[in-house]
Amino acid sequence: MHNVHKGAALALVGAALAYATWVISPWLVPELSVVESYASELAADGLGHAEIFRWGDRIASVLLLIAAALLRGPRIAWLRALLAVWASATLIDSFFPMSCAQSLDTGCVLRHSTFPTVQDTIHVLSSSTATIASVLAVAAGTWLRPAARSTRVMAWICVGATILVIIASGAAEIFHVNAGLGLVQRLQLATLSAWLITFGRQLWTSWSTSRASAGPPLTCSR
């Protein structure tokens, strides 16, 4: 039981690291501004090293699915479902990347805003689904069961960062200005990875069993 329990924790931490491949982008893709470009542009068609970032998302997706399959316990069904949706949407996203890096090709923006391709449409839908499912997974894993202070703090930071991303994206669509959008989005991605690590650490140390008075411990399947 404990080995499987720790396996779920390792899967979550591994997913967090794989989901953070964007941190090496300044060295691999220096032409993309970390302040103004979408993180998704790193995996865009025609961009050097795009496969590295696509495979980072694919590995993260598989590990999230493994964690979702292993987790068991009262009030954990929502977390399992949301982790699975997050992983599935991210996996689809990795196979349907942006057809071009919009911050580098203004002509691409004009073309696809008028006649969006199937690839770009699927990308937008899967990316949006992944964003929503990820923050809901954070909420389910934090507030549907007792959680340690570190997990609650990271959850609030993640929710705040997601709200900033929504505001920044809306401003970019209305005013056509991407200043700061990339930085805010990367902050949100960083908080997601940080939350996965803190939650995984709690699984590893069996934090829920020490709070048995608050409810049955979170366990994993055999």
UniProtKB/TrEMBL annotation:
Record keyword Isomerase present: no
UniProt entry keywords in alphabetical sequence: Membrane, Transmembrane, Transmembrane helix
Signal peptide feature range: none
Alphabetized InterPro entries for the sequence: DUF998
Pfam families, per database record: DUF998 (PF06197)
Keyword Membrane: yes
Record field: transmembrane: 52-71, 83-104, 124-144, 153-175
Highest taxon, organism lineage: Bacteria
Protein known as: DUF998 domain-containing protein
Provenance organism: Bowdeniella nasicola
